[in-house]
Amino acid sequence: MKRFFKIFLMIIGAGTLGIFISGIVLAVFFRTYREDVPDKTVLELDFDKGFEEYVPDDPAARMMSGKTPTVLDVIESLQQASEDKRVIGLIGHIGNAEMGLARIQELRNAISAFRAKGKTAVAYSDTFGEFGPGNGAYYLATAFKKIYLQPSGDIGLTGLMFETRFLKGTLDKVGIKPRMDHRREYKNAMNVLTETGYTEPHKEALCKIMSSQFGQIIRDIGKARDISESDMISLTDHGFFLGQEACNAKLADELAYRDKVYEDMKKIAGENAEFLPLMTYRERADQPSAKGETLALIYGVGAISRGENEYNALSGNAVMGSETVAKAFRAAIEDKEVKAILFRVSSPGGSYIGSDTIWRETVRAKQAGKPVIVSMGDVAGSGGYFVAMAADKIVAQPGTITGSVGVLAGKLLTSDLWDKLGISHDEIHTGSSSTMWSGTNDYSPEQWDRLQDALDRIYADFTGKVAEGRKLDPEDVSEVAKGRIWTGEDAQIRGLVDELGGFPEAIQLAKKAAGIPENAEICLKLFPKKKAFLDLLEEKASDVTTARILSEIQPIVQAVGQIGILGEQGVLSMQGFEFSVY
Question: For the residues of 394-410, what is the DSSP string, one character each?
Fold first, then answer.
């Protein structure tokens, strides 16, 4: 019997060892297979759905984003591929590519850097706007060496238009009265509720933004396509260009379907060349070792609120929680390996208190000897600028929307609405201040005065910290503040931004501030660390069950959100419409 058990255990042990060894062999095999990149590789990148700044730690967000890479994923992958001798070139499928101007500029820069290393890059699209504008998509395509357009396609290079829907007439009809005030005349986020059209300061600010962004697009396209600026302006007045018209105007190089594009690239790369999606290449390629000095990477994305980061599954928007970001800064400060902090901000603002909480942590980081470099995304205005202004350096794209140094506050009076609906109400309260934030009671003269005191205090705090953080005279701050928005290009001229660029430029500034050699390798360490998907499922299991339904109704909710009537925004907020370029 003992002999039987001994043999039995030996068999079990041998089997277990065999399984273990087989597992190792299979792991090595699949790892080797996964990392195999053909000797002649042409990368593919689909821009059709755009790229997000950051995918929040939320199961619904992870599911809705799928495998879509972030902006930084694309930049890092193209950078790695540009140094890889196995990579011959890149084919970009442009499609709709609906993104903010700053993100488009960041991607254009990454493609240009890829080409500067001697790599071939071509773009193709079935159309740039089908009975609609295609400005942003075409602007992105001009970063490529050659542009293919499907014969049936158009190029909708039509110029820019800002459109705002004002709700005052509707609110008057239903019995809702906005009681709000602001600091100062350019702080126009509340105008959609209080006006029937643009005020003069509102129109002035938007015209300046439009002029700056349009100028950037015209100059960059003209340079890429070898067309003069005056001719470019004339082309935009033409309207959209039908297939052959686009080629005649030098806006496209060739009319061709997708298969012809791939045949042409095959001739350039060689018959043995293989096509590989950029993110598949990223998975297979030998990943750069995590060596070199460490830079912390902290994202501040979405409207700012007090508390933890959140994800609004209805609108598809991230929320920047002050506690989450503050904790990330504190962890980076305490991490002895971290030499500097890269803070990526893409936010229209929100809570003043939340913004101030984050601002304090940026100051503490500097006091701890850890430089803070801000890289701005599409929008970093109002509270989004508040959290950035104390940084050692601020980097923005020329088309970034920033500034909006101002404040607004108030409430909506709904008593007439309830009367029209036949709903009565009664109330009891303890004193004269109890009704201050009631939607059925107007401000008393004393309450209105207190609101003015609060607005004055916040505005003074905001402008004072801008002057301190940016080392500007208070008089100069007064001129650039007043709630006015600026492009990154104009903000740099006025001292609100230090340099123009994106992630690469911000990383170089972080190296310099930390005393790291320019060409030295660095390791970007994300704070807070991303959670495992299973952990997120345990935390928010109910969100996952509704993710598919939410993805269906999300476009409707986003449309409602664009007219500014969904959810809290906070006193340091910008106007509720998207600065996307179409």
Answer: EEE-TT-EEE---EEEE
349 three-class SS = strand
Q: Is 398 within 8 Å of 103 (Cβ atoms)?
A: no
Position 533 pLDDT exceeds 90: no
**Average pLDDT value for residue range 209-214:** 96
In the chain, CATH 3.90.226.10 sits at: 41-158+239-284, 293-405+484-581
Please give the C-alpha separations between residue 326 and each of 254, 351, 356, 357, 379, in angstroms, as whole numbers.
Answer: 51, 14, 10, 7, 20
| pTM of the entire predicted model | 0.86
Architecture of domain 41-158+239-284: Alpha-Beta Complex (3.90)
> DSSP readout, 453-468?
HHHHHHHHHHHHHHHH
Q: What is the CA radius of gyration of the chain?
A: 27
Q: What is the C-alpha to C-alpha distance for residues 136 and 144, in angstroms, rounded to an integer?
A: 14
- Supply the mean pLDDT for the chain: 87
Identify the CA nearest to 532 among candidates 20, 10, 55, 57: 57
Q: Checking phi first, is residue 500 left (phi over 0); if not, alpha (psi -120 to 50) or beta?
A: beta
E-state strands within 244-369: 254-255, 274-277, 293-301, 303-305, 310-312, 317-321, 338-347, 349-350
**Is it the case that residue 14 has pLDDT exceeding 50?**
no
The fold for domain 293-405+484-581 equals: 2-enoyl-CoA Hydratase; Chain A, domain 1 (3.90.226)
- Rounded CA-CA distance 219/499 in Å is 19
Question: Which run of H or of E encompasses 327?
Answer: helix 322-334
Spatial CB neighbours of 150, under 8 Å, sequence gap ≥ 6: 124, 125, 126, 127, 243, 255, 256, 257, 258
3-state DSSP of 517-554: CCCCCEEEEEECCCCCHHHHHHHCHHHHHHHHHHHHHH
pLDDT, mean of residues 20-35: 46
Name 264's Cβ contacts closer than 8 Å, sequence gap at least 6. 122, 256
Most distant CA pair in the chain, distance: 99
Backbone angles phi and psi of 355, in degrees to 5: -65, -40
Report which DSSP code applies to 143. Answer: T
Average pLDDT over residues 93-104: 92
180, containing H or E segment = strand 177-183
Q: Indicate whether 24 pLDDT > 70.
A: no
277-314: pLDDT as tens digits: 999 999 998 766 567 899 999 999 999 999 998 877 67
Q: Amino acid identity of 423?
A: I
